[in-house]
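*Target chain*
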Amino acid sequence: MKRALICLLVALFALPAFAERKHSVGEYDIHYIAFNSSFLQPDVAAAAGLVRSKAQGVVNVSVLKSGKPVPALVSGTVKNLLGQDRTLTFKQLKESNEAIYYLAQFPIDSQETLRFSLTVQPMDAEPVTFDFNQEIYPDE
């Protein structure tokens, strides 16, 4: 499982089309990324409990304090340009004490810009709410 998670991270952060996305508040850095789940290798997706599909996206969130992972409560929604909201259901993936990730999947209907609204509450801090836009493409 540990090896599969490392592969997941390498796959996520090695994609050249994505720049680092980070929201910093006080001592906390909240890293986030959204991408098409078909970018994942089948064994990596299975190990993470994700559905690998041309029509499914993944949003990945991690919270760091002084460079160390911290547990958090993560919730959010994704909205398309027509204003249709979908609730994101995050699940925690923990890799010993080295990393904690929060993953949620969402449907991709067509090439579009999606608006994500996330609320992240580190266990020892107040909740932080922020939005970001991401253009998503269904895999052809």
Notes: The first strand starts at residue 22 and ends at 25.
